[in-house]
Amino acid sequence: MMKKVLAGVLCTAMAVSALGMVSFADETEAGSAGLATDGKFVVGFDAEYPPYGYMDDNGDYTGFDLELAGAVCDLEGWELVARPIDWDSKDMELESGNIDCIWNGFTMNGREDSYTFSVPYVDNSQVIVVADDSGIESLSDLEGKVVGVQADSAALALLEEDGDQADLGATFGELQQFGDYNTAFAELQAGSLDAVAIDVGVANYQTAGREGYSILDESLNSEQYAVGFKKGNDVLCETINSDLAVLLENGTFDEIAAKYEEMGIPSDMLCLAESLGVKAETEAE
Predict the structure, then answer these.
(1) Which architecture characterizes domain 125-223 according to CATH?
(2) Virtual CA dihedral for 202, 51, 30, 75, nearest 10 degrees?
(3) pTM, whole model, 2 decimals?
(4) What are the residue ranges of helices labelled H in 23-89?
């Protein structure tokens, strides 16, 4: 049953993709970084954002999102160029054409007017990590505390003045911004921070490798990850959508996901099948 549903999804998505690719080379607004001419797919990512994107022990860039991007490139015959970027400079990198997309645990919720997004593939939430001996057991215990967060992140947007958790953020003694979460966790370990606001997948990864730290039961929100493209780049977006459907149908998506389940991305966070209509339609039939 799943294959029948996916076949329909694939036919529709690939038809759109095929029509778009006919004029891809002529649409200067659709393409970036020379994808149509040199076959390179340039992915912008935070190199210190495990398990979605990071440098492994061999000095190679890897991660859940980069492996998915690599699988897409295998389907298309493209060369994957994994380009580390400063997260707070991601918009400039995308607008200038230095990267083709942002693919690295990128929250789509609240950003729909600024980017063209793929279908979501991971359900995420923002959480708080604290030391076990901190005495902090709930969000209300953060009053007067120093909390760390990544610059220009979804967690920061939640806690700032216009965010959904602005009232909570206003109770903090200080909200400190960091360029990456590895640095924030180092400060948490050093005692300079009382807590860190962070994506749950990254929190799972970080706490699994450190004894004495845990995630509060109360989360800040729920959201979804998707691949972000320059606004209006529908051609490339539809190509990636159709490729993600292929990767789901042939089992590659689940194979990659299985490698990262124990690294912080449990299977119940995956939502690609539901995003493509597979779960809902199969249950209905």
Answers:
(1) 3-Layer(aba) Sandwich (3.40)
(2) -150
(3) 0.81
(4) 35-38, 64-76
